[in-house]
């Protein structure tokens, strides 16, 4: 694997991997008051743009990891809506 | 600006932008118990890899936004250490 793709693969693996314990934690604590609703919404939208960017640019690491991160991002958004406390509390 | 770079620019702007209210919220609430320590540590490491990936691959959007996200990631890590509750509580 080329250095460039290895760096992207590692970056994606570690960053995306880090979201798993974060999502797990929200569902374990059944609490997401500290999580910003703006963050979760922007994150899902932003990651979608990165995914299309990866497809257009033909970058395997960007495609792979942003697909998985998108799912984790949507789980965080779900946790925020379900456990985030009063909805006006952004 | 090429479509590819525009997508990357938008992806970075929205994703990174979303972190600002998240970091702000942790410092406002002075609480980061829901934030996973694994997430913040992995995030900082992972984003560093993405930054080097962007430099090696010569991708302006990846370089720009991962530099800013790295700073925001380190602020989240600081907030977790400062307000995250008992350190063993990952």
Automatic annotation (TrEMBL), chains A, B:
Membrane topology listed for this record: Multi-pass membrane protein
Record-linked Pfam families: PQ-loop (PF04193)
Localisation: Membrane
Main location: membrane
Source organism superkingdom: Bacteria
Annotated TM spans: 6-24, 36-56, 62-81
Record's keyword terms, sorted: Membrane, Transmembrane, Transmembrane helix
Annotated InterPro entries: PQ-loop_rpt (IPR006603)
Gene3D superfamilies on file: 1.20.1280.290
Protein name from the UniProt record: PQ-loop domain-containing transporter
């Amino acid at each position: 694997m080329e250095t460039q793709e290895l760096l992207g693969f590692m970056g994606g693996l570690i960053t995306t991997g880090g979201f798993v314990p974060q999502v797990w934690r929200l569902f374990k604590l059944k609490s997401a008051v500290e999580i910003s609703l703006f963050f979760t919404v922007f994150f899902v939208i932003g990651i979608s743009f990165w995914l299309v960017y990866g497809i257009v640019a033909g970058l395997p690491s960007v495609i792979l990891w942003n697909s998985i991160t998108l799912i984790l991002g949507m789980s965080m958004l779900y946790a925020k809506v379900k456990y985030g406390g009063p909805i006006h509390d952004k």
